[in-house]
Sequence to fold (661 residues):
Amino acid sequence: MPLSDKQINFVKKNFKSLSPKEMSKQLNVSQDEIDSYLKTIKSPAPIWFYITLILLPVIFFVCLEIGLRIFNYGKDTKVWIDISMDMQVLNPEIAARYFFTTKNLPFSVESFIYKEKKENSFRVFVAGASSAAGYPYLSSASFSKFIRKKLEILYPDKVIEVCNISMSAINSYAIRDLMPEILQKEPDLILIYLGHNEYYGALGVGSLESFGSSRFIVNTTLWLNKFKTVEFIRNIVNSISGLFSTEDKATGGTMMAQMAQDKLIELNSDVYWQGIEQFEGNFRDILAMCKDAKVPVIASTLSCNLKDQKPFVSIGNSDNPGADYIFDIANEELYKDNIDSAKSLFVYAKELDALRFRAPEEINRIIINLCTEFKYPFIKSDSLLNALSLNEIVGNNLMTDHLHPNVKGYQLIGNLFFESMKKNNYLPTLESSDLDEYTADSLVYAYYNFTQLDSTVADFRIKILKNDWPYINPENQIPRNRLFSLNNLIDSVSTDVVDGRISREQARLKVASRYLKEKHYNKYAQEMAALVEEFPFLYKYYNSTARELLAADKFSAAYYFLKRGFKVNPDAFNSKWLGIIDLSQGFVDDAINYLEKSISYDKNDAQVYFNITGAYAQKKEFDKAFKSINKCLNLSPDFPRAKQIQQQLTEIINKNSSFEQ
Fold:
């Protein structure tokens, strides 16, 4: 007879303390029945079993992660990589953290920084997307370039670092992800121009690269993506799914055309507000991190083309009028000279544009409100560019396309940032030069080093942009051989740059070589100046360019390269020629400093001793002068005019000795 429920409970409760015989006696049942039931009871596993069960997969994935890192599996997504002995750059593959289906990844082109922050360094970071990166000019005309050049002019004794980490097609998710790494680099200031790409930028709610609208999921995914194990698993999944899919990674068309997935996002729709909430949450996190690190921030509102950019997509419904309709009324009001009404309508037409490439006004409101909340200053770039436009409505006068400023527009934004830096005491603490700001601005514009190559490359980029969706139907694209007129070397080189066949360094060298061959020395110097500003870690070009200009007797032009080279990589050559040129200009003390430096690098250059003889003589330090000319003659007995000067110095020293007696 089977055990009753009461008997079973008794057995379960006492089987560890009582023997089967004792339990059978107390329950008045046979011992066989007790033994039979006990066989069905499984002893619980010991605690070490459960600990092992938990630890084994953890140990497995830790070992897998270590192994993948040891063998350098996958993409290198660490934030900084070495570019020279003493400089780093933002990893060109860092965008792999944010793009999973796009093959041609964007990268920053102006993010050079010293590995170790120097004592006299003033370090500024610029964060944003394509507008902050200076598109279509990139580093050749970005607002960060204007800020850097003005700081270099006003603070010549400071090491000025303006590291621009911005790149196309990213948004607040990427900047939030990178911010901890930026803060580790001890910035003195962070400038932010961000918000146009919240919908279609990588991981945005309307993007091809979207993970959905949950900030928690997206930011957690970004954190997990830093592990090689996650990349390994993702690649396996992609490989398996690729076997059953004929779709290729997004590679064709402009980045703008590739990234827009849910292309239509109507005003006040659910997706519209998801994008707003996405930006607000990420921007709040960014400012909170900066505040915790006690790093100053200046953020800017966003500007875009209001007057000359027709809405890309117009959708009229019971909730909102069509964007095209409002845009047409705005033009009518402008024609009637009703400026205030026209301006409001142009803004409203932009807000109604269902293809949300231009940031809605709600983004600017968030920027202002959060900066106010965190007690950070902000600038209003949109207000400035409107104020300096005809009828105070910005259009093609300061814009290249729907939202990217032209050279003048970027310079205005850069100067507005600089004025805020000055107003909020964010400038270097070291005393500035004797130059006033008006003179400094004049020098910035005069030596901006924006070349014909830069202009042509930018022009071709804009032509490509406007020859694709959403500007035109892709079926109506103009063939490349009709889109560009290739009339000279610069045109040909520019197409090679925009198509990625040659680097910007190679392009500048090609154009500069032609200028040098044709003896256009000023253009040669400007192109090479643009090159060393764009690639400051390529030290070899400082002296090589100076040599070419010195050979052509272009001493003033050579001085620029000698001075920049001396600042980052002083050697016998650049210090020698800085001393010679300064001496010829009457700057005797500076000349002596440079020439003595040159001797410390190379004690066998007769020309240096000859020139420093003249410098000492002008200072009436005749004993030093005599020793120097003797060293010159020891190294080169036939050095021109050296014996004559030796004789003159001998007479002066003897004459002075007789007076002393």
The longest strand covers residues 121-128. Residues 530 and 536 are 10 Å apart (CA to CA).
